[in-house]
Design brief:
- The structure is a single chain.
- By secondary structure, the chain is an alpha/beta fold.
- It has a domain of about 230 residues: 3-Layer(aba) Sandwich (Rossmann fold), CATH 3.40.50.
- The strands form 5 sheets. A 7-stranded parallel sheet has the order 3-2-1-4-5-7-12, sandwiched between helices. Strands 6-15 form a two-stranded antiparallel sheet.
- Helix 3 links the parallel strand 1 and strand 2.
- Helix 2 packs across helix 3, helix 2 runs parallel beside helix 9 and helix 6 runs parallel beside helix 7.
- It is globular, with a radius of gyration of 19 Å.
């Protein structure tokens, strides 16, 4: 990130510009990656700003002209239009359709963001198809490409509160969503080991911005006078712009067998303490529900910081921005994270 952080974020345009601002390290990483970049599943919460960051970083990197292509069903025409206005090419596609997947352009670099989480309970078969079967189709289609694969810290399962597991920690996914995400990792790993595909696996734990994320969930409960659940009493949170930068840099680390990295905030945050900080900023009382359990979904991201640097945006800065945004009635995506869920059912 080259510009100073603003004291407040006043508009959606300012927010998305900040979330898609590449760091110098990201520009350098993309300078070393020839070829186009294809972002599969780019229409979700994080995909549009990551695709725009890839475009901006590629332009700053110079060299040969690179296409950045975002692929999604694009249920929101506005998201697609904003990408097009940023010189990101868009393709509407149903990725589970073999013919549609086969018709996508060849690309040297692929960012795989497709998956299913919310609505997975009661629709387990589609969850496994999206999270474990589709990776096999993509691995076959892009066997010669470099692929950065989004995964989740949920594959570690609940651990005792503390630093959280690193990349070599035991994998104990809870619930079919997390198990299918481990399936995603294993399928990409299989093709990486058997076919030599260069793969990075990115275990992301709670990317956050103004419109969604765990901190937004907590802020809204405090602001609207709803009790804050404490059963999942601790968490990691990372600014989405920092996560975007780390993910694109990790694309350059793709290897066979896969390179695996946790992408998460550096602190183990207390839900009780965060709620209290929002209460102070809103000048409202805070209500709590339940008590903290001795374990939570956490990740140790020290390897990430050693390779890519520490997050630029701090916990305090995120809380200040979110409190200001919520207090002014800023737009949210109305997509709660359900961070309090301890059974793995989403």
């Amino acid at each position: 990130m080259t510009s100073a952080l603003p004291p407040t974020i006043r508009s959606l345009d300012e927010l998305e510009a900040l979330l898609s601002e590449p760091s110098a390290a990201t520009v350098r990483a993309l300078q070393g990656l020839p070829g186009d970049i294809l972002v599969l599943g780019a229409g979700g919460k994080m995909g549009p700003t990551l695709a725009r960051m890839a475009r901006r970083a590629s332009d700053l990197a110079g060299g040969s002209v690179r296409r950045v292509i975002a692929v999604s069903r694009f249920s929101s025409a506005q998201v697609e239009q904003r990408l097009n206005s940023s010189n990101v090419q868009t393709i509407r596609s149903e990725l589970l359709d073999r013919a549609a997947l086969g018709s996508l352009p060849d690309c040297d670099n692929v960012v795989y963001m497709a998956g299913m989480k919310f609505g997975s309970t009661g629709n387990e078969s589609l969850t496994w198809a999206m999270n474990s079967y589709l990776p096999g189709l993509v691995s076959e289609r892009y066997v010669a490409s470099r692929i950065a694969v989004f995964s989740t810290g949920n594959v570690y399962g609940l651990c005792q509160t503390g630093q959280g597991p690193d990349e070599d920690g035991p994998l104990r996914p809870v619930g079919e969503y997390a198990m299918s995400c481990l399936g995603r990792e294993r399928i990409f790993e299989h093709f990486s080991r058997s076919r030599g595909t260069q793969v990075s696996i990115l275990r992301l734990n709670y990317a956050t911005e103004m419109r969604y994320g765990v901190l937004v969930d907590i802020a809204q409960k405090v602001f609207f006078g709803q009790p804050v659940p404490l059963a999942m009493g601790y968490l990691n949170a990372i600014w989405q712009g920092d996560a975007n930068n780390m993910c694109l840099q990790a694309l350059a680390r793709a290897a066979s067998p896969p390179f695996v990295v946790n992408i998460a905030g550096p602190e183990v945050l207390s839900v009780r303490r965060i709620a209290g900080q929002f209460a102070d900023r809103f000048q409202k009382p805070v209500q709590f529900e339940g008590t903290e359990s001795p374990d939570a979904l956490l990740s140790d991201a020290r390897k990430c910081y050693e390779l890519f640097g520490r997050p630029v945006v701090s916990e305090t800065q995120m809380i200040d921005w979110i409190a200001d945004w919520i207090g002014r009635g800023g737009e949210t995506l109305s997509k709660p994270t359900h961070f309090e869920n301890r059974t793995g059912s989403f």
